[in-house]
Amino acid sequence: MQHILEELDKRRAQARAGGGERRIASQHAKGKLSARERIDLLLDEQSFEEFDMFVEHRSHDFGMEEQRIPGDGVVTGWGTISGRVVYVFSKDFTVFGGSLSKAHAEKIVKVQEMAARNGAPIIGLFDAGGARIQEGVDSLAGYADIFLQNVLSSGVIPQISVIMGPCAGGDVYSPAMTDFIFMVKDTAYMYVTGPDVVKTVINEDVSHEDLGGYRVHALKSGVADGAFENDLEALSQVRRLVDFLPLSNREKPPLRDSYDDPEREEPSLDTLVPLNPNQPYDMKELILKVVDEADFFEISPDYAKNIITGFGRMDGETVGFVANQPQVLAGVLDIDASRKAARFVRFCDAFNIPIVTFVDVPGFMPGTKQEQGALIKHGAKLLFAYAEATAPKVTLITRKAYGGAFDVMSSKNIRGDVNYAWPTAEIAVMGPKQAVEIIFRADIGDAKKLAEREAEYKAHFANPFVAASRGYIDDVIMPRGTRRRIVRALKSLKNKQLSNPWKKHDNIPL
Ligand code: HXC
Hints:
By secondary structure, the chain is of the alpha/beta class. It has three domains: 2-242, 2-enoyl-CoA Hydratase, Chain A, domain 1, CATH 3.90.226.10; 267-425 and 463-492, Alpha-Beta Complex (2-enoyl-CoA Hydratase, Chain A, domain 1); 431-461, no CATH class. The chain has helices at residues 2-16, 21-29, 35-42, 102-118, 137-153, 170-176, 195-202, 208-212, 214-221, 231-244, 283-290, 335-350, 368-372, 375-388, 403-408, 432-439, 447-461, 465-469, 482-492, and strands at residues 49-51, 74-81, 84-91, 122-128, 159-168, 180-184, 189-191, 226-228, 297-299, 307-314, 317-324, 355-361, 393-402, 418-421, 426-428, 475-476. Strands 1, 2, 3, 4, 5, 6, 7 and 8 form an eight-stranded mixed β-sheet that branches. Strands 9, 10, 11, 12, 13, 14, 15 and 16 form an eight-stranded mixed β-sheet that branches. A hairpin with a 2-residue loop joins strand 10 and strand 11. Helix 5 (137-153) packs parallel to helix 6 and helix 12 (335-350) runs parallel beside helix 14 (375-388). The protein is elongated, with a radius of gyration of 26 Å. The structure holds hexanoyl-coenzyme A. Hexanoyl-coenzyme A binds at residues 23, 96-97, 99, 129-133, 140, 143, 166, 168-170, 173, 194.
């Protein structure tokens, strides 16, 4: 009997050794942890249950039959984060560069299916060289199986990808279809085709970092939702994010004990908006002052900074915040901001997370660059996302709400549930200067007359009371009482029931 038990121990040790000490040391030398070390940091201590550690590839080509490593380049299973179940797969770069064989794909698909069936998030840790070149079409088919599960699970369970090393070819499309992508600075890069192929096809010299490092994806392309200093920080931040999220679309977001008084007043908010309408202020200050314990998990903090997206809690319950940031480009809605916020709104709605919107927006960004880049379609994404959302929606206009952007930012007419404004709100088709120059074009040469017209326009529109008198705003509230009013609004919406007409699916302007 003893020898049978020893055999199991031996086989387990062999699987746990992955690609061997030398390759693990090389992984550490690059500042990266091993696949198993990462799982240990991601999950609650001792909670990991591994599946398929004895799975091997079935290839007989290119001498592969001589090289079999149990586990075949990916560690899969489930465990808990703060006591709640999550499924996980972690690519093992020390085994064939984490490349994907058919057997490796089957391991991932198994946990993807289990996560969806059992209503738990799935987290993928990526550090891999793409398709297992020796396996050819079997590897490509394996990727397609994974992609299919990504799509079927979208909106059913949260899917999170963490890029912790190279990530090329097939390994970028699966993350691209998940809800959130995070990168580790300096060790992670992701691209469809690497620098060598770029050189061959278009004769361009480019480094891994310039092609697909975090500066590309977390700052410019918006492919990544955040970047962290190292593996440890990335994994602990993913734990923090998971704490905000429901396990599936069948569940409510978790309720967290809050020690922050829901009635708390913030007198400093009374003076947050400067008297000069052209002077910026930091909208993040408002978010941090109203959420529980100033705990805010920002999504895409370094991309399209003119709009802020992220999760916080109000009296213990998770809320998604979307807020124009007057500090960057005056909070204008451009292509990037519209895409970023639309995707976030859709995530929240898919999981029925209430959406709180803070509005200070001068309108959509004018100009040829934006129009040629399809601002119309991208701006419409945000409008579409807000309008179709049936999750509770609470809106507060702090200052400007001009033009189409007023409609887009969760206005009453696209089913905002509770819409507030501060007394400093200005709601109009456009700003006073542009408006009088259009409707009083004849007065353009007469500076005095134009100034009078502008003052008249401001007196009429640069306040929330016209909108409030028509019912487009439910109430004008004191800034200091914002937290209390939003908490109460959200409580009133707890049992909200609203559904859209039956359809196979909508056709959001992609
Ligand atoms: C098999 C691979 C591999 C792969 C790496 N290895 N990539 N084995 N298939 N795709 C192996 C190496 O042979 C090596 O084995 C070990 O992994 C480490 O690789 P190195 O090259 O030594 O590491 P490094 O210098 O850090 O470079 C990492 C890398 C590079 C940048 C990822 O390996 C690379 O460019 N790999 C190929 C990337 C690629 O083009 N993949 C195919 C994409 S196409 P030993 O035994 O020496 O340790 C694709 C199609 C799917 O994915 C499309 C679906 C839509």
